[in-house]
From TrEMBL:
Keywords: Oxidoreductase. InterPro entries: NAD(P)-bd_dom_sf, SDR_fam. Pfam families: adh_short_C2. Belongs to the short-chain dehydrogenases/reductases (SDR) family. This is Short-chain dehydrogenase reductase ATA1-like. Gene3D superfamilies: NAD(P)-binding Rossmann-like Domain. The keyword Oxidoreductase applies. The keyword Membrane does not apply. The gene is LOC113716044. It comes from the Eukaryota. It comes from Coffea arabica (Arabian coffee).
């Protein structure tokens, strides 16, 4: 049996969008490494069940509402008296289609969660961390779509690219406390959001995670032959950024893509925005 690590022993963490997918895998890994985990999500049943199973806590949180994010931070402080880690992970996809037909209300809806939700998280988590005087780690979910064009819809790409700037500026400001701010940019992870996009794109309702992984590895290219991305790959990277092992890393965007964004410039595939 693999010995459990204690990289986050005694640390208090909030994970938005933590009920499933990357957030859920990260919540489980954090707990296995000794952290007290607050799952903040809108998927109440899934979130509550997961929180109970890992000895954590759950709070309903719509990150587009600043008061909800503030309440999640206050909830963590009331539970354990401090906050050490905030993984701003909650996000949604965006409508595909041509820029010429884009509904700006759809753009606002995506930005309200994917961008404003992360700024809400940085704002209120940093307040708690500054008051606690022990520093902390803030991790923000971006995407390979922020690095390479043509991978996702225009609203989604705009929101994920826009995260990189505030992460760097807040890393500059908060480093004196010392609070580290970093981003994580996955590619091709078979989340529910990506599965839904492929169902629409391929016109099939029965798409499974392994189908998407095969599609990405087989036709979308990777430096790692036959190797698709998994939730656990991203969770391990987030764990690294959350732990003291990355104590001298700040203002960084850690890309978890199997080398995709490095290799694609040498390939001749045409990429179509799918979500």
């Amino acid at each position: 049996m693999k010995k459990l690590s204690t990289k986050l022993i005694g640390k208090v963490a909030i994970i938005t969008g933590g009920a499933r997918g990357i957030g859920g895998a990260t919540a489980e890994l954090f707990a296995k490494n000794g952290a007290y985990v607050v799952i903040a999500d809108v998927l109440d049943e899934l979130g509550s069940h997961l929180a109970t199973s890992i000895g954590g806590r759950y709070i309903h949180c719509d990150v587009s509402k600043e008061k909800d994010v503030e309440a999640a931070v206050e909830f963590a402080l009331a539970w354990k008296g401090e906050l050490d880690i905030m993984f701003n992970n909650a996000g949604i996809g965006g409508p595909g289609g041509s820029i010429s037909d884009l509904d700006m209300e759809d753009v606002k809806a995506v930005l309200s969660i994917n961008l404003y939700g992360i700024i809400h998280g940085i704002k209120h988590a940093s307040r708690a961390m500054i008051s606690g005087k022990n520093g902390g780690s803030l991790i923000c979910s971006s995407s390979s779509a922020a690095i390479l064009g043509g991978l996702a819809s225009h609203p989604y790409t705009a929101s994920k690219n826009a995260i990189l700037g505030p992460a760097k500026t807040t890393a500059c400001e908060l480093g004196m406390h010392p609070i580290r701010v970093n981003c994580i940019s996955p590619h091709g992870i078979p989340s529910e959001m990506l599965l839904d996009a492929y169902r629409v794109w391929l016109g099939k309702d029965d798409i499974k995670p392994e189908d998407v992984t095969h599609e990405i590895v087989g036709e979308r290219a990777s430096l790692l032959k036959g190797r698709g991305g998994k939730f656990e790959d991203v969770a391990e990277a987030v764990l690294f950024l959350a732990s003291d092992e990355s104590g001298f890393i700040a203002g960084h965007n850690l890309v978890v893509d199997g080398g995709f964004t490095s290799a694609v410039s040498h390939l001749s595939f045409i990429y179509t925005p799918i979500y």
